[in-house]
């Protein structure tokens, strides 16, 4: 997808009524498929992260309106007055416009592929459900028509909406958090009704620490493999190999609990004979039943597999399936042959990891769906204890460059995990028409990583095929701004209660290739290159009274504790001029 504009006509967080941001000129197709990330930059609390949250919340509402499989209770009715209301959105008045391809055109890469693009407008007024309009781009006779059917709406939504936030700001994650439970409930409904469909209706994916191992394995087993004898394709994973030093994966274990079951849905139960209704194995189904195809694929790739019988006070007897993997070129060939791509493997892991939500009861899930509490994540711990999980990774050993001892994923630093997540989401979803929402992805990076960040993700998303993708980044880093075109940089400034948002191009600030010192001054009004504490010491020296050469010499000696900087050079210039003046007077 390609965002065109967003207008919010009601107050939302720190965004005022009438907030508008224009991303793209739909009449200019020369750079439709170019890599051109949008960077939202400004001081803390200026509202830039709220833009990402607003877009995610709008698509969450549209998803909920058009999901075919929904749990009960979810939607508002007489029995569930607090349920999901189509006419009330967290942003109750808005207009969102974007370009997209139809689902059937997602893999079409013709030279004239702009002719396959649709213009979509989602519009909502207070008290009414959002309306969605579609028209063909570059068709002079095209007229926008309203989409009402669930399937035709699903066709014009982004293939995936991928979210990532590096800090403690959980606002962006809230719609993704809720949709994880909707994804699980949809799986549970299909399972209990004896449907075997596995494909998730929801396109939302949020990468957090629970996906650390899934990302690593998907990349190193599928994107880092033998392409010919004695030759390894390392290009895609160069940043992870060179920057983090993860050379490869040595071994890992997968544990799958097979003894958790659910009672079949009433409509299936009623179809059973009276005799079968008395048999527990006929009336109950294992939670892993609909993922047996995935489990079989994982077994085929494993070095060894075995079952362990367990006794449980609740479920009596059950079993754990252990799958062990010693990773070598044959292991990778097996994963490549069976799963095909890192995206397929990651989605399989995503389905299995979602099964760990089974312990959250209906009452608590109803609270999650109905809650507007921004601290919802703090109130609910959805993942059960380790021994109660249906699916988990164990003992994932890494091979790090120039490190002999065993390294596990939990030993990586916050910055290394950040790099893993941002590179991972770009590589795994690069061949899709998707929307990437990255909230301050560089907070734990060192300056070198920040300087390389845009180049790194550009390389990760590079492909010969044509995809409609958009990537929105909020940041405080002038290094990231320096690698973004001025038309795509939006500067957020707040004057008391009023918010001003302008593109760098409109401010006539050419951000691309501009010095980080200049950008720091222009965007954050920070003219000094020093921290406040050292600057305070320098200014105390500057503000002394200099009536003698001895006092000037003392100031020079005291300033030696300060390192090299433009401010120190200016201080010495002032001292030399004062020294020259005193010598002249003598």
Question: How would you characterize this protein structure?
Answer:
The chain is α+β, with helices and mostly antiparallel strands and 586 residues long. The protein has 2 domains: 523 residues, no CATH class; 54 residues, no CATH class. The strands form 5 sheets. It has a 7-stranded mixed sheet with strand order 9-8-19-20-3-21-22, sandwiched between helices. A 6-stranded antiparallel sheet has the order 2-1-4-5-6-7. Helix 1 packs parallel to helix 3, helix 4 packs across helix 13 and helix 18 packs antiparallel against helix 19. The chain is globular, with a radius of gyration of 28 Å.
Give the biggest sheet: 7 strands, mixed
Q: Helix/strand-derived class?
A: alpha+beta
Number of domains: 2
Question: How much strand?
Answer: 15-25%
| Secondary structure tally: strands | 22
* Count, helices: 19
Query: What's the gyration radius in Å?
Result: 28 Å
- Quaternary structure annotation: single chain
Lateral strand order in the biggest sheet: 9-8-19-20-3-21-22
For the termini, the CA-CA separation is 75 Å
Percent range of helical residues: 25-40%
Report the principal-axis shape: globular
Q: Taking all residues together, what is the mean pLDDT?
A: 85
Low-confidence stretches: 105-115, 226-232
Give a quick set of tags describing it:
586 residues; alpha+beta; seven-stranded mixed beta sheet; globular
């Amino acid at each position: 997808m390609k965002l065109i504009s967003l207008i919010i006509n009601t107050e939302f967080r720190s965004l005022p009524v009438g907030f508008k941001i224009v991303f793209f000129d739909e009449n200019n197709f020369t750079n439709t498929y170019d890599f051109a990330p949008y960077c939202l930059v400004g001081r803390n609390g200026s509202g830039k992260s709220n833009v990402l949250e607003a877009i995610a919340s709008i698509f969450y509402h549209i998803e909920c309106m058009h999901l075919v499989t929904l749990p009960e209770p979810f939607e508002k009715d007489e029995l569930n007055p607090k349920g999901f209301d189509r006419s009330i959105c967290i942003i109750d008045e808005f207009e969102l416009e974007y370009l997209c391809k139809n689902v059937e055109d997602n893999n079409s890469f013709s030279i004239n592929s702009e002719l396959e693009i649709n213009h979509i407008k989602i519009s909502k007024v207070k008290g009414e459900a959002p309306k969605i309009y579609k028209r063909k781009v570059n068709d002079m006779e095209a007229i926008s028509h309203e989409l009402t059917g669930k399937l035709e709406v699903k066709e014009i939504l982004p293939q995936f909406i991928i979210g990532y936030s590096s800090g403690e700001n959980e606002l962006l994650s809230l719609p993704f958090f809720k949709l994880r439970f909707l994804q699980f409930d949809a799986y549970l409904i299909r399972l209990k009704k004896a449907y075997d469909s596995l494909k998730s209706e929801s396109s939302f994916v949020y990468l957090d620490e629970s996906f650390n191992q899934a990302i690593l394995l998907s990349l190193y087993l599928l994107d880092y493999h033998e392409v010919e004898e004695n030759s390894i394709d390392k290009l895609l994973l160069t940043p992870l190999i060179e920057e983090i030093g993860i050379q490869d994966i040595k071994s890992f274990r997968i544990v799958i609990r097979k003894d958790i079951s659910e009672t079949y849905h009433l409509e299936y139960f009623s179809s059973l004979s009276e005799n079968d209704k008395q048999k527990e194995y006929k009336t109950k189904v294992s939670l892993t039943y609909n993922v047996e195809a995935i489990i079989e694929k994982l077994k085929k790739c494993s070095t060894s597999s075995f079952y362990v019988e367990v006794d449980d006070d609740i479920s009596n007897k059950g079993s754990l399936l252990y799958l062990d993997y010693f990773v070598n070129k044959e292991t990778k060939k097996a994963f490549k042959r069976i799963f095909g791509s890192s995206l397929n493997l990651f989605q399989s892991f995503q389905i299995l990891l979602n099964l760990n939500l089974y312990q959250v009861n209906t009452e608590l899930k109803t609270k999650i769906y109905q809650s507007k509490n921004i601290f919802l994540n703090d109130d609910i711990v959805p993942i059960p204890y380790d021994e109660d999980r249906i699916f988990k990774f164990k003992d994932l050993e890494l091979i790090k460059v120039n490190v002999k001892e065993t390294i596990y994923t939990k030993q990586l630093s916050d910055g290394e995990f950040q790099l893993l997540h941002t590179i991972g989401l770009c590589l795994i979803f690069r061949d899709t028409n998707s929307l990437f929402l990255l909230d301050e992805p560089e907070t734990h990076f060192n300056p070198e990583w920040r300087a390389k960040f845009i180049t790194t993700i550009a390389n990760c998303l590079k492909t010969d095929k044509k995809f409609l993708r958009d990537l929105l980044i909020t940041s405080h880093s002038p290094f990231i701004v320096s690698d973004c075109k001025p038309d795509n940089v939006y500067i957020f400034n707040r004057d008391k209660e009023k918010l001003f948002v302008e593109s760098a191009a409109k401010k006539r600030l050419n951000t691309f290739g501009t010095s980080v010192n200049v950008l720091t001054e222009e965007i954050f009004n920070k003219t000094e290159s020093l921290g406040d504490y050292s600057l305070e010491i320098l200014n105390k020296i500057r503000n002394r009274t200099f009536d003698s050469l001895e006092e000037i010499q003392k100031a020079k000696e005291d300033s030696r504790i300060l390192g090299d900087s433009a401010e120190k050079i200016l201080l010495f210039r002032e001292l030399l001029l004062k020294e020259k003046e005193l010598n002249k007077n003598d």
